[in-house]
Amino acid sequence: MSKEIKSLITITLTVILVIAIVYLTTAIFMTGEIGNGKKTTKDKTTTTSPSISKMYDNMIIASKTFDQNKEEYKVIFFYGKDISEELNGAINSYDSSSKEIKLYKVNLSDVINKFVISKEQNSKATSYKQLKINGVTLITIKNKVITSYVTDEKNIINELK
Question: Which residue positions in the chain have pLDDT lower than 70?
């Protein structure tokens, strides 16, 4: 009987030790729950300026570009941290105004949206699978069809004013 109890205790302790090692490894290297990862996450949330956080209202993923409920709307594709102050201001002022055409935003820096980044452009896309974006782009969609495709940042800013 004592041999069975020792064996049971050894197995239980081994299982607990393995679970603890897996948890600590995941918490340190994968999620950043333990260590420096938590500090940097905290710093990022406290240092985000209001205009940048407002930038993330009406965010969609690229695969939802043609799936919005509105009849006509605009979608701007941009690279999150590399956005110029002038363009950021134009986007924020567009959001603040009472324009009838809603503006949705797609951050090309997000991994989920990388599939639309291309060296070419496709201004005639009819589905998200055909989208090809080469830099900051503003498209207007009416009845699920692209009616305007603007790629020059100055023209985008003028379009948003």
Answer: 1, 32, 36-56, 96-97
Instruction: Write the burial class of residue 28 (CB in 10 Å: 0-12 exposed, 13-18 middle, 19+ buried).
Output: middle
Q: What is the dihedral sign for C-alpha 79, 93, 64, 146?
A: negative
Concatenating the DSSP letter of every residue in 29-40 gives: IIS--SSHHHHH
Token pair 């603890």 in the structure block, residue: 20
Instruction: Quick: pLDDT tens for 113-139.
Output: 999 999 999 999 999 999 999 999 999
Alpha helices in the chain (DSSP H): 2-25, 36-47, 50-55, 85-96, 153-160
* Cβ–Cβ under 8 Å, residues 151 and 134: yes
Q: Which two tokens stand for residue 143?
A: 């009845």
Under a CB-based contact definition with an 8 Å cutoff, are residues 32 and 38 in contact? yes
